[in-house]
Write a structure and sequence with these properties.
Elements (H helix, E strand, L loop, with lengths): L2 H61 L3 E5 L5 E4 L1 H7 L3 H4 L13 H14 L1 E9 L5 E13 L2 E10 L1 H50 L5 H32 L7 E4 H19 L2 E6 L6 E4 L1 H17 L5 E9 L2 E8 L21 H7 L5 H11 L3 E6 L5 E8 L27 E5 L3 H13 L3 E5 L2 H9 L6 E4 L8 H9 L12 E5 L4 H9 L4 E4 L4 H12 L1
Parallel strand pairs: 7-9, 13-14, 13-15, 15-16, 16-17
Antiparallel strand pairs: 1-2, 1-5, 3-4, 4-5, 6-8, 9-10, 10-12, 11-12
Helix pairs in contact: 5-6, 5-11, 6-10, 7-8, 8-10, 12-13
Length: 555
């Protein structure tokens, strides 16, 4: 092969390589073009998405009902949404780069600076402060700050909420609460006042009725007076129910926790209701579980009130047959059941029994009377003692009431844990005492004079607390004082305090003083006893109650 052939073959190889290279270059160029085109499309798409996201962020940022601000690490305004601009009344350009603390009321600027340091340090802060509008007016705001990082750049995000309406609502609620409290106090005062005003004349009505009943009367006269007495006692029962219900509604009912003799309390309830049961020839039985402790802890007055109401109702609504009372231990509960063979009720209407001012059947109210408060009060009292009352019955086939409360064994008698006695100590009362009656109502003072005379005591009347002190300072020796709570010039509480302080003379500083008052609320009792009085009697005053107190004083 000559040289020309060699060069020719070499040329052909190089030309083929060049064509292949050109073809490859053309192919790569097309790929690069496609890649550039796709990249350009992606840039456009990403830019569109980014713009869309920015628009979405902006829409959300500015549509927020709460104000939102973005601050740099030095507390200068970077951005504020439309809500902030509306709150403050500034243009966006006026806030750009402005130190945020300048937007606060002067008295709150230190709080704002400290809160900014807190969010920078911990990442979070929350506080309330006054902000200043463009016109200089102030409004209260709640500010919540949080810290975010964008790369190495720290941004503080602040959410601002105008709490003017919240403050107004809180203020309105306070006003409403205060008005409700005043209304409740006015209602309590009205009920207490009406109770006092009704009890005062009733004391005369019932007291003189008992006095006359103790004299020679014809059967018809005695029957009529018994009806007067019964009507007066019903009225007192209604007044007591209304006062109790008012206390429960207002949350003023206080539950005590003292030792008391359960069996003695149950027997007293039966004694109180025995006359009505005897008249109907009802068989009344009491069964007390031997497992029950003799002395338990609780509120004697309220437990007795509930049991007395249940037993009284059983006797009231039972024409013939029986009333069975049982007390037993059921685990950690004391359960007292009252079962009767009376008119009963439809089980479906049992819930009405415990509704205030209602009874299971309207006809029952018309026939038997009553306010419909008794069982409502009993359930509330039971619940206040962490117990409950259930009712089961069948129309015309009797009813069963179950009263349960925590069974707490009482302390041994003695000291502060001494058992409360339900029945007064019996004994021969020493007579011939001279008693000072402090009473400004002439009817009630005359009634007390007659009652004391029947018990063998002499008396003298004072109509004011000032007169009481003057008589005690005199030469006449008095053995006790029956003190009315409300009197002109000086009331009974003030007079008792002065007597105990020796203002009437050291020789009478310890004289027995018994409150005899138509102010029959528990707080009245506590006030009288706190003033130094020895005992408390509520009007209308029963001769037996007066005799019992005097027996304790003079045995």
């Amino acid at each position: 092969m000559d040289d020309s052939d060699k060069w020719k073959k070499r040329f052909e190889r190089e030309r083929a390589a060049r064509r292949e290279a050109e073809h490859l270059l053309e192919h790569k160029s097309l790929e690069l073009y496609e890649a550039n085109r796709r990249l350009a499309d992606e840039v456009v798409q990403k830019g569109s998405e980014l713009e869309e996201q920015e628009q979405l962020f902006g829409a959300i940022f500015h549509a927020s009902m709460d104000g939102i601000v973005l601050l740099d690490g030095r507390g200068r305004m970077m951005e504020a949404n439309d809500a902030v601009l509306r709150m403050l009344g500034f243009a966006r350009s006026q806030l750009q780069g402005k130190g945020v603390t300048r937007l606060f009321a002067e008295k709150d600027r230190l709080l704002a600076r400290n809160s900014f340091r807190e969010v920078v340090k911990t990442g979070y802060c929350r506080y309330e402060a006054g902000l200043v509008r463009s016109d200089g007016s102030l409004f209260p705001a709640e500010i919540v700050g949080s810290r975010v990082w964008v790369g190495k750049k720290m941004i503080i995000n602040g959410v601002v909420r105008d709490i003017s309406q919240r403050r107004r609502n809180i203020s309105a609620l306070r006003v409403a609460r205060d008005e409700a409290t005043r209304a409740n106090q006015a209602k309590s005062l009205f009920l207490a006042s009406m109770s006092h005003e009704i009890r005062t004349p009733l004391n005369g009505v019932l007291g003189f009725t008992e006095v006359v009943l103790g004299s020679d009367l014809s059967e018809e006269q005695r029957r009529h007076l018994e009806l007067v007495k019964s009507s007066g006692e019903i009225l007192i029962h209604i007044i007591n129910d209304l006062l109790d219900f008012s206390k429960i509604e207002s949350g003023q009912m206080v539950i005590e926790n003292k030792n008391f003799d359960l069996e003695a309390m149950m027997k007293e309830v039966i004694e109180i209701t025995s006359q009505a049961a005897i008249e109907k020839k009802l068989e009344v039985t009491l069964e007390i579980d031997a497992k029950l402790p003799k002395v338990i802890k609780g509120d004697l007055f309220r437990v007795r009130q509930v049991v007395l109401n249940l037993v009284s109702n059983a006797v009231k609504f039972t024409k013939e047959g029986f009333v069975r009372i049982k007390a037993r231990a059921q685990g950690e509960q004391l359960e007292i059941s009252v079962v009767d063979s009376g008119i009963g009720f439809e089980e479906a209407n049992s819930y009405l029994l415990f509704e205030a001012f209602s009874q299971a059947d309207a006809a029952t109210t018309r026939k038997f009377g009553g306010t419909g408060l008794g069982l409502a009060i009993c359930r509330n009292l039971a619940q206040a003692m962490d117990g409950n009352i259930e009712a089961h019955g069948e129309l015309n086939k009797g009813a069963t009431f179950l009263f349960s409360l925590p069974l707490v064994r009482g302390d041994h008698a003695g000291g502060e844990g001494e058992t409360e006695k339900v029945v007064a100590d019996q004994g021969e009362m020493k007579t011939g005492k001279f008693i000072l009656i402090a009473e400004d109502n002439s009817i009630n003072s005359r009634l007390l004079t007659i009652m004391l005379k029947k018990l063998g005591h002499a008396s003298q009347v004072a109509t004011t607390g000032t007169e009481v002190l003057a008589l005690l300072r005199g030469d006449v020796k008095f053995d006790a004082v029956l003190m009315d709570r409300h009197m002109p010039e000086m009331d009974g509480v003030a007079a008792a305090e002065l007597i105990r302080a020796g203002e009437a003379g050291e020789h009478v500083a310890l004289i027995p003083i018994v409150a005899v008052t138509a102010s029959a609320l528990e707080e009245d009792r506590e006030l009288c006893l706190a003033s130094g009085m020895n005992d408390f009697l509520a009007k209308p005053l029963r001769p037996s109650a007066l005799e019992e107190v005097l027996r304790k004083l003079f045995l």
